[in-house]
Amino acid sequence: MKLSSVVAASAMFSAVNAYPGMNASLIETLKEADCCGSNELIGDLLWLDNSRLSPVALLIKSILIYDTDARSDEFYYQVPALRSFACVRDPCCVWWYIVEEMEKLFRAPDGQCTNAARAAIRLGFHDAGAWSKHTGDFGGADGSIVWAPEEIKRRENHGLEEIIQQMKHWYGKWNSYGISVADLIQMAATTATVVCPLGPRIRSFVGRRDSHRPAPDGLIPSPFDPAEKLIELFRAKTIKPSGLAALLGAHSTSKQRFLDAASFGFPQDSTPGVWDILFYEQTLGVGAPDIFRFPSDIILSQHAHLYPAFRTFTGVNGQERWNYDYAREYVRLSLLGVNNVNNLTDCTRVLPQARTEWKYE
Ligand code: HEM
H or E element: which one contains 346? Predict the structure, then answer.
């Protein structure tokens, strides 16, 4: 049995146990909604057949629709000197130097991830997530959150100003090497994720194109929206409820500032410097002193379509199951609106190594 089937089976088991009175048709609905994560094709993968796909595009396709692990340990051996011909010839080379700089900003002296890291993870979502199947062929992971001044004025993007400035700084420093802001944002998000102790090393691709056109409005979720609205919003991004449950775990590292003034700076679990599953436990449970749980996280965690995944992530092997699912869903998220998947390069090897163990003080 494949890992995802085991996860799905155990999730179904938890769901049935959690809702003893549940009828058969609702269980069928759950199967459809929760089994196996998101699996729709996106971008140019929708119209290019396999014979025309590059090896990287085939890999991405198999991550999106099959059970291919979206994480990798592959390492960059013998990185060429920055200004050498060898570096110019390898599109990943400059990224190794950029990521080295990002890592310094994202890792605190005690090894945990910093405020800049959490902001970068959120920025990755807010650039790529401003896309929907129903709003025409623009938006998504295109750097518009940096390029279009209108976007940063939107209420849901409040708090991202500083990390956007950081992106502009990095772009100013590195753009002569031919990078895009869209890639910079997504590489920063995956670097920040793996820098957080226990975070997955997510496959990271480059070659996205930038757009200066503001993304469609109204596609970034509000923490006050009802669960059904949030679920539909993510479905329109090709993300199923179980995928949404995995992505919400990014709040394991977050600290809110603008939702509740009285709890300014409060994290969403007790260990915001570590990519652990405490967020799932504390969101499902009664919380803890000095944390602030988002209303949306609470209602989604209790919704029949997400509850099984929340339970799975808190169960045996929960960390591994969450990291696996998060990486798979994040690859999808990071490619929303990208219509040149067939031209992307896999530069995962530039990422720092994952830290799979962490001792709490
Ligand atoms: C229903 C979906 C979601 C809602 C309603 C939501 C809402 C929020 C809110 C209100 C904040 C606090 C902002 C502040 O006050 O500073 C926040 C922070 C954050 N969100 Fe989400 N979010 C959602 C999904 C996601 C996803 C899918 C990701 C990433 C994949 C993500 C990553 C983060 C991170 C890392 C932070 C912390 C930012 C920081 O500490 O600077 N969120 N989110």
Answer: strand 345-346
Q: β-strand 205-206 against 345-346: which pairing, if any?
A: antiparallel
For the CA atoms of the chain, what is the radius of gyration? 20
- Residue given tokens 């995802």 in the structure block: 4
Token pair 């590489």: residue:
187
Question: Which atom of ligand 1 is closest in space to residue 233's alpha carbon?
Answer: 1
**137 annotated as belonging to a binding site for a ligand:** no
The percent of residues above 70 in pLDDT, for the chain, comes to 90
Question: Shortest CA distance to 328 belongs to which of 69, 32, 50?
Answer: 69
Distance 262 CA to ligand 1 centre (A): 18
Angle subtended by helix axes 93-106 and 161-174, to nearest 10: 150
Residues in the ligand 1 pocket, defined by CB under 6 Å? 118-119, 121-122, 125, 159, 221-223, 230, 247-248, 250-251, 253-259, 294, 296
> If you classify domain 3-21+34-350 with CATH, what class do you get?
mainly alpha
- Give tens-digit pLDDT for 251-303: 999 999 999 999 999 999 999 999 999 999 999 998 899 999 999 999 999 99
**355-359 contacts: CB < 8 A, separation 24 or more?**
355/111, 355/194, 355/197, 355/198, 355/199, 356/198, 357/197, 357/198, 358/111, 358/197, 358/198, 358/274, 358/276
Task: Provide the sign of the torsion angle of the four alpha carbons 117, 118, 119, 121, taken in this order.
Answer: positive
Q: What proportions of the chain, in percent to the nearest 5, are helix, strand and coil? A: 55, 5, 45
pLDDT classification of 159: cutoffs 50, 70, 90: very high
Cα-to-centroid distance, 160 and ligand 1 (Å) = 11
Of 190, 251, 330, the residue with max ligand 1 atoms within 8 A of its CB, to mutate for a pocket test, comes to 251
* Residues noted as catalytic: 126
HSE-CB of 174 using CA atoms within 13 angstroms: 25
What is the CA(122)–ligand 1 centre distance, in A? Answer: 6
196 CA distance to ligand 1 middle (Å):
16
